[in-house]
Amino acid sequence: MNRDPWKIATHCCYCAVQCGMKVHVDPETRRVVGVEGNEAFPVNRGQMCVKGQTSSELLYHPERLRYPLMRCGGKFERVTWDDALDYTAKQLQRIQARYGKPCVGVYGGGALTNEKAYLLGKFARVALQTPNIDYNGRFCMSSGAAASIKTFGLDRGLTMPLADIPRAKCILLCGSNIIETLPPLMQYFKEAKKNGCTLIVIDPRQSATAKSADLHLAVRPGTDLALANALLCSLAEENLLDVPFLTERVRGFEEALIAARETSPAQAAEICGVPEKDIRRAARLFGKAATGMVLTARGAEQHSKGTDTACAYLNLLLATGKIGKPGCGGGPLTGQGNGQGGREHGQKADQLPGYRKIDNPEHRAYIASVWGVPEEEIPGAGKSAYELLDAVAQKQIRGLVVIGSNPAVSAPNTKHVNQGLEGLEFMAVADFFFSETAQRADVVFPVTQWAEEDGTVTNLEGRVILRRRASDPPGEARSDTFILLELAKRLGRGEYFPYQHTREIFEELRIASKGGAADYSGITWGRIEQEGGIFWPCPDIRHPGTPRMFTEKFATPDGKAQMQAVRYRPSAEEPDAEYPLRLTTGRYLQHYLSGNQTRRVAPLVKVKPRPLIEVHPDTAKRYGLTEGGMARLTTRRGSVVLSVKVTPTIRPDTIFAPFHWGGEQCINDLTNPALDPTSRMPEFKTCAVRIEREATETHTNR
Ligand SMILES: Nc1nc2c(c(=O)[nH]1)N[C@H]1C(S)=C(S)[C@@H](COP(=O)(O)OP(=O)(O)OC[C@H]3O[C@@H](n4cnc5c(=O)[nH]c(N)nc54)[C@H](O)[C@@H]3O)O[C@H]1N2
Ligand SMILES: Nc1nc2c(c(=O)[nH]1)N[C@H]1C(S)=C(S)[C@@H](COP(=O)(O)OP(=O)(O)OC[C@H]3O[C@@H](n4cnc5c(=O)[nH]c(N)nc54)[C@H](O)[C@@H]3O)O[C@H]1N2
Ligand code: SF4
Ligand SMILES: [Mo]
Predict the structure, then answer these.
(1) Could you tell me the domains of the chain?
(2) What is the pLDDT of residues 458-500, one digit of tens each?
(3) What is the pTM of this model?
(4) 617-624: Cβ within 8 A, 24+ apart
(5) Which atom of ligand 3 is closest in space to residue 18's alpha carbon?
(6) Which residues line ligand 1 (CB under 6 A)?
């Protein structure tokens, strides 16, 4: 409970840990003067990373958008809210009248609160009546989520609370660099290690996290599927299977093993560039441990075979019976602040609230009844994020509304994407800073930030929590909710959006999610405040919530988990004579995603002022590259010149670069938009690349 009225308990604006923080407000000026970690919040227990610690710098930043802007003859000019909203509604109506309703698209994000994500999905289907809504989570969680749905029948991110981690005796961490990406979670891993846990990290780089591991498997990018299958084979060979668990609770083990055996551990070792003895050792450590977890993140998932890879990792949990018990479980580590809730309530192209399916007649009928529209009026499934952006480039989509994403930097193959965005007849972007995407818009709406509004988010454990308003927004900034409600009114659909307060949107979400896979109906804002967060599913007001999933049965029709038979296949683009190396991409501790927020925070920029290309000393020698010198990276899609960091912590056949910068430093100009057939996830984590020395100035790298 929050006692001091000038220390307001809320949550960080960035990642999926959603650290509890107290926002300090000066009683006289009513301005936020700083933040501190909230010791009472059971997830971060007072810890925060540098991004959270510096988050209040975003609030009164001089570059905040303060007024609506409209492009007039190539320049942006300040306009009134009425003008901006009227013009937007008119343009959207004009485009829909001329080309058809699906020709307007909506692009959302995993930073949006549950209320906003729900509202955005409803806005697209009811106010615009377009099928084409999707969001940046497609680039984030989609493969991990798809694997959980295929295997367990449900995606709740982690199947267990973080508090279970210290009870695990062996943890496989697959393509996750927790020390930089979810730092406060390290306290749980440290506790586990103290209790005798073996930590195995699978990463092409000896990342900070890999350094802290007992065993590091430096896998070649794009080959985790072979590795995971080899682990399954080894578990079977060494009789480390949990046969009673497989018999009682799992289907498909035989088929999965047959598929895994198509590449032997020896062949897998060759494919992955990891010694066979290390693979076997990892299998023994995991198989023999009394409890254990398998956690995947984007390193394993952001591939054109990301879903199959995540399934192959989940197979290891099932094969050893390490799920549904204390110290056991796993699944994908969600990334964005509301990456979890954001993928449950309808901003996905194929989805309706409560994780319902848009092509399921019963699901449609139920949501139609909640929304008060005829079922036939709800459009069908639309295009996935990259396909939507590609449709923009192909001029199948002529108008776009972007809320909570910066695809001009974060989408793969950004040259193509940006050409598309620039060719749109109309684009509106809502943001609190002038992002690279906003710079290409016709109308820019200035919006409120996390500490300026109320709303719920769902963290990476599936815990639904409440963010609280602590400060007034600058200038004329208004909430995303205001924009959507005003636009709905102007589109003649205001009657379906009668909310006076954000809480009323949550009340509708509760009803809309009732009986769905992601059931929030027993959760209320009041309960969250009293209980410090509630884990879904929570189907009843008296239900305590569900921290640990699948204790007795899985969410499939017969209650059994379905192991997936998945076979190794190469990446969409393998190295060749012209592009001999692999490029993989990822994150720095100090920057967040497209960098539109963190590139404006001085203490963060001071530590990481620009992106660096990580190359192994052997590779550097071979291509005549030097520390701090410049190098040109070229793939089939584009070319970028960046400064070099020579480091033995990366595989010699691999190059790493972060994606937090746009413009000339945009690594996504190079990445491959090849999509996973199930999740529609692009292959951010591997493509074929060439590196050359570029004769320009030398920097001192930090
Ligand atoms: N500081 C910071 N924290 C963040 C974010 C941020 O932008 N900055 N973003 C948040 C979000 S939205 C997300 S999704 C999470 C992401 O969190 P992570 O998944 O931990 O982040 P990444 O750096 O993208 O990738 C993790 C690791 O995967 C490795 N990797 C690359 N290719 C492969 C491969 O083929 N196989 C394997 N096994 N590993 C590979 C990389 O070397 C890298 O160390 O972080 C969240 N937290
Ligand atoms: N090469 C490469 N590319 C990647 C990845 C990778 O690993 N490698 N990772 C991918 C992943 S995992 C992700 S999650 C994506 C994310 O990529 P983006 O979707 O671009 O993520 P952000 O930078 O968070 O963009 C959010 C934008 O919305 C604004 N914003 C934040 N909150 C709100 C809000 O509540 N309302 C409104 N209106 N605006 C808001 C921010 O200022 C920012 O401009 O990037 C993907 N791109
Ligand atoms: S960015 Fe994530 S880890 Fe860092 S303070 Fe915010 S919520 Fe916590
Ligand atoms: Mo993400």
Answers:
(1) 90-139+338-513 (3.40.50.740), 142-333 (3.40.228.10), 581-693 (2.40.40.20)
(2) 999 999 999 999 999 999 999 999 999 999 999 999 999 999 9
(3) 0.97
(4) 617/646, 617/647, 617/648, 618/652, 619/581, 619/652, 619/653, 619/655, 619/691, 620/644, 620/646, 623/691, 623/692, 623/693, 624/693
(5) 7
(6) 15, 140, 174-177, 180-182, 202-205, 207, 219, 221-222, 224, 297-300, 335-336, 584, 586-587, 589, 591-593, 656, 685-686
